[in-house]
Write a structure and sequence with these properties.
The chain contains seven helices and 16 strands. The protein is of the alpha+beta class and 303 residues long. Among the domains are: 73 residues, Rossmann fold; 104 residues, GMP Synthetase, Chain A, domain 3, CATH 3.30.300.30. The strands form five sheets. A five-stranded mixed β-sheet has the order 1-2-3-4-5. The protein has a four-stranded antiparallel β-sheet with strand order 6-7-10-11. A three-stranded mixed β-sheet has the order 14-15-16, sandwiched between helices. The longest helix is centred in the C-terminal third of the chain and has 25 residues. It is globular and about 60 Å long. The chain starts with 11 loop residues before the first helix and ends with a helix.
Length: 303
């Protein structure tokens, strides 16, 4: 099979011209880029495509719908990690379910490890011929660190149903304890994508004196927490899944691969929170009683 590689998936129109020009039959991409291609493309641009494979981030219903309605193409979502070369699961024309990342490739074994917290799923460990054998780490130079019995810890929380379809619940690192419950930040982002389709949104957990809280940033102009709350409740979402704050930003941080830049999102949210905290301290300091005012008020302040 011939493969054509192009350095930047952000050049939407150029990529469309290449797909058309080389009569491509298979297209790989992330949800972000595929949605961009779909908006810019003429239906004839994708006339030669037989399979469109999506990975790296969850596929939104709006992306799936436009590919079906505009081009007559189904999206086949898959999942993998770098250490597995990189594919682990894939939907196929015969076995395809929306919202799931497909079934395990032949020869690949899966094991779910129970994790702390009251939520569905387990931490996914994989073993198979495509899994890298060992690591070389900077902290232990020159030493090959093999995996115990060949199992690789993906760091993802997943479920596997009776038919073998895998559903990604989120990264283990992307769960936050909110109001005593373990909440998947990815699940909250999926709700945001349903409320404001076409607008990029991301969630970060921030420290709070009383309990953890989530802050959602979105590129949707005029987005309000009340809208999110009403939609989430209509879908049966629990109260802890509703972010404490929603902030509209010009640009949600994204990596070159099309994935959300979670570190950038977290830093953006925390920097804004720190600024607001400092402003709040200054505002309250300005309202403190001056010398000579009521001793009761001063006493309460010192207390």
């Amino acid at each position: 099979m011939r493969v054509y590689l192009y350095p930047s998936p952000l050049h939407y129109r150029t990529v469309l011209e290449l797909v058309y020009g080389v009569n491509a039959t298979i297209l790989f991409g992330t949800d972000t880029f595929l949605a961009g291609y779909a908006r810019a493309a003429h239906p004839y641009d994708f006339r030669s495509l037989r399979y469109v494979l999506a990975g790296a981030e969850p596929v939104k219903e709006t992306t799936r719908k436009i590919f079906m309605e505009k081009f007559g193409l189904r999206l086949f979502e898959g999942y993998g990690v770098t250490e597995t070369a990189p594919v682990l699961t894939l939907n196929t024309p015969m076995f395809n379910r929306f919202g799931r990342v497909g079934r395990l490739l032949p020869g690949v074994e899966a094991r779910l490890e129970q994790v702390a917290g009251d939520f569905e799923g387990g931490r996914l460990h994989m073993r198979g011929p495509n899994v890298t054998l060992s690591y070389l780490k900077t902290g232990n130079p020159g030493v090959i660190e093999a995996r115990p019995e060949g199992w690789h810890d993906t760091g993802d929380i997943v479920t596997i149903d009776a038919q073998g379809f895998v559903t990604i619940k989120g990264r283990a690192k992307r769960f936050a304890k909110i109001g005593g419950e373990m909440i998947s930040l990815a699940a909250v982002e999926a709700l945001a994508a349903d409320v404001w389709p076409g607008a990029l949104s991301a969630v970060a957990a921030v420290p709070d004196v009383r309990k953890g809280k989530m802050v959602l940033i979105t590129q949707k102009p005029g987005a309000k927490r009340s809208n999110f709350q009403a939609f989430a409740k209509s879908k049966g979402a629990a109260e802890p899944m509703i972010p404490a704050e929603i902030r509209v930003v010009d640009k949600v941080p994204v990596l070159g691969s099309g994935k959300l830049d979670y570190l950038g999102v977290r830093n953006l949210v925390r920097d804004a929170s720190a600024t607001e905290f400092n402003i709040d301290i200054l505002d309250r300091s300005a309202k403190l009683p001056r010398a000579g005012q009521s001793s009761i008020i001063a006493g309460c302040h010192h207390a």
